[in-house]
Inverse folding.
């Protein structure tokens, strides 16, 4: 892939405090990020807040794509405990991601950000099928693109789907939204001695089994030289700060 380039900002636009580091990014959100104080499903206030975060980055002239998990509604692995076979459970989880994607599309478009949902499972009554060249064209035209239904195949996580779509659409960064402001040696909410990394290599993540994303996703990002920025989605303005390089995050990239 080409090295990251700065996004162009229209001359008539108000000059931002910081210049975006990347022209095109993919944001990976977990389904649980949409829960808020609810134990299940969607919290409309949280969806609106996250949509506002995405809109703020889109307003900088950055081309934005999203992959949203479905764990707030159904998780394939959970289905196994209920007697549902893994493949069927994973397909159910893919349908959950479509629900989340449509909710986010609605919130973004109410804020004036044109958005398209593309699904890896054909569902043409509610969204487009995933077509790589069409997705790229949407982003070039200033539309936010949400990739739903994972890879369209069971046994693959939405983390892997995010790395795959980022690779296919030539994104210059993969932004992994989490509950904490980066990657730690252990869960900082459970271990007070956990230390935070500012920078890691892909090899470090895999060899130390740091559980940032699944190994397939990290390996795919490594192969395509896509840096992974891990940041807290719960801090207001954290997404824009990560894109402009001014916030608290851990960057995972190839060491030189």
């Amino acid at each position: 892939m080409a090295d990251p380039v700065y996004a162009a900002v229209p001359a008539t636009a108000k000059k931002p405090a910081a210049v975006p580091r990347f022209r095109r990014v993919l944001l990976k959100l977990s389904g649980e990020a949409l829960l808020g104080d609810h134990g299940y499903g969607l919290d409309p206030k949280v969806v609106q807040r996250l949509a506002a975060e995405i809109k703020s980055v889109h307003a900088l002239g950055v081309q934005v794509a999203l992959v949203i998990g479905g764990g707030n509604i159904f998780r394939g692995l959970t289905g196994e405990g209920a007697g549902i076979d893994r493949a069927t459970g994973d397909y159910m989880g893919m349908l959950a991601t479509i629900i989340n994607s449509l909710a986010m599309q609605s919130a973004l478009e109410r804020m004036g950000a044109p958005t398209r949902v593309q699904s890896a499972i054909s569902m043409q009554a509610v969204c487009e099928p995933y077509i790589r060249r069409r997705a790229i064209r949407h982003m070039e035209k200033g539309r936010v693109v949400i990739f739903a239904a994972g890879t369209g195949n069971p046994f693959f996580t939405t983390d892997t789907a995010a790395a795959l779509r980022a690779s296919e659409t030539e994104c210059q960064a993969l932004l992994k939204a989490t509950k904490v402001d980066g990657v730690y040696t252990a869960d900082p909410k459970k271990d007070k001695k956990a230390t935070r990394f500012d920078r890691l290599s892909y090899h470090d993540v895999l060899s130390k089994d740091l559980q940032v994303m699944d190994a397939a996703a990290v390996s795919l990002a490594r192969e395509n030289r896509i840096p992974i920025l891990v940041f807290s989605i719960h801090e207001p303005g954290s997404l824009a700060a990560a894109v402009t390089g001014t916030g608290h995050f851990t960057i995972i990239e190839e060491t030189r």
About this structure: The chain has eight helices and eleven strands. The two ends are 16 Å apart (CA to CA). Residues 19-157+165-171 form a domain with the Carbamate kinase fold (CATH 3.40.1160.10). The mean pLDDT is 91.
